[in-house]
Amino acid sequence: MGLGAANWSILGYFIYVLLVQISDIAASLVGFALGWNASDFDTQFTTFQSTLLTTLSSAIM
């Protein structure tokens, strides 16, 4: 089952979008809590967000 919208029910798609938002917020909070260097923040954020999103997605699929 791909992540494309066409492969999801409407509810499933909104759940996925919500997970993206949650992962954004969580990654931001963790980043600030750990005090990541500002110059390296984008890399850390992207890595953490993708890891978290993968984990959350696999949990509901």
What does this structure look like?
By secondary structure, the chain is mostly helical. The chain has one domain (10-60). Helices cover 74% and strands 0% of the residues. The chain has helices at residues 10-34, 41-60. Helix 1 (10-34) runs antiparallel to helix 2. It is elongated, with a radius of gyration of 13 Å.
Task: Give a quick precis of the structure.
With 61 residues, the chain is mainly α. Helix content is 74%, strand content 0%.
- Based on CA atoms alone, the radius of gyration comes out at 13 Å
Net shape = elongated
- Overall average pLDDT: 73
Q: Kindly name the structural category.
A: mainly alpha
Q: What is the count of DSSP helices, taking H or I runs of 4+ residues?
A: 2
Strand content: under 5%
| Separation of the first and last Cα atoms | 9 Å
Low-confidence stretches: none
The counted number of beta strands is 0
How many strands, what sense, and barrel or not for the largest sheet?
A: none
- The helix/strand series, from N terminus to C terminus, equals HH
Helical content stands at: over 70%
Integer count of domains: 1
Transmembrane segments: 13-36
Keywords: Membrane, Transmembrane, Transmembrane helix
